[in-house]
Amino acid sequence: MTDLARAVHDALNRTATSHTPEAAPPPHADGTRPLPAPGPLEPADLGATMGRRRSTYRFAHGSPSRAQLAALLHHGVGTAPRAGGLASITPYVVTRDGVRWADLRRPVPSLVTVRAGDPTEYVRQSIDQPPFADRVPTWIALVADLAPSRDRYPARHYRTVHLDAGAALQNVLLVAAALGLATCPVSGFDDRAWARLLDLHDDAFVAVLVAAGGAATPPSLQSRR
Ligand SMILES: Cc1cc2nc3c(=O)[nH]c(=O)nc-3n(C[C@H](O)[C@H](O)[C@H](O)COP(=O)(O)O)c2cc1C
Asked: What whole-number distance in Å separates Cα of residue 177 and Cα of residue 49?
C-alpha cells in the first residue's frame, strides 16, 4: 500500500472501534472447489426486485445453497463494472467451516481455501455488532485491491476502488433480492482483524461485508435488531 493510502487508513481507523480477536482457524493451502455455473435468475420486474431489497437482521433459514452462492458471486460481483476494467474487487466467503476466496477468472471459477475451521468466535470479536456472528451463516467480504491501479493511475484513483466495491455490493444485494435471500451490508468491522482472517496482502483491504443467509424473513415478521 502506498504511504498515502496507509496514512489515510491509519487516520480513519483511529476513529473506529478497534477489535483484537484471538485465534483464527489455521491456514489451509491446498483446497480448491469449483463453483457451479450460476443458474438463470428468474425473469422478474427489475423495479420490483429493487423495491423488495431490504437489509435483514434475521438469518433463520440456513445458508445460501452452493448454486445461490455461485449466483451471488458470478452475477453479483462478476458482472459489476470496475474503473479501468481492473481486477479491483475480489470476493471472499467466510462460513462456519472456513475462509475461501472466489477466483472468478479461472477457466473453472473456484473457491480457494484460505483457512479451514470455524471462524465464528473470531468473527464475533472482530465486528461492532457481535450478535451477527452466531446469526449469520455466510459472509461475503468484498476485498478491494489497490495494486492493479497503482502503476496506471494517480493516487486519486483510490476513490474509484470504493465505487467499484459499491457497485459490486448493490449487484450482490439485488441478486440476493431476486433469489429471495436474506442479506445485510456490514461496515462495522476491524480492518486489521479481517485482513488477518482473510490473509490479505498489503495492498488489499475489506471494503464491506455482506451478511447472507437462506430465505429472507418477510420484513413484517422481523424486528430491526
Ligand atoms: C455501505 C453500507 C454499510 C452498512 N453497514 C451496516 C452495519 O455495519 N451494520 C448494520 O446493522 N447495517 C449496516 N448497513 C445497513 C443499513 O443500515 C441499511 O441499508 C439502511 O438502514 C437502509 O435499510 P435497507 O437496506 O433495508 O433499505 C449498511 C448499509 C450500507 C449500504
From this structure: 6
> Along the chain (225 residues), what's the average pLDDT of each consecutive run of 10 residues?
93 94 89 89 89 94 93 95 96 97 86 96 97 97 96 93 98 96 97 97 97 83 56
Name every residue whose Cβ is closer than 8 Å to that of residue 148 and which is 6 or more positions away in sequence.
84, 86, 87, 88
Please identify, by atom number, the ligand 1 atom nearest to the C-alpha of residue 189.
Answer: 8
Q: What pLDDT, on the 0 to 100 scale, is given for residue 125?
A: 97
3-19+31-139+148-219 under CATH 3.40.109.10, yes or no: yes
Q: Which atom belonging to ligand 1 lies closest to the Cα atom of 188? A: 8
Ligand 1, atom 21: closest residue by C-alpha: 55
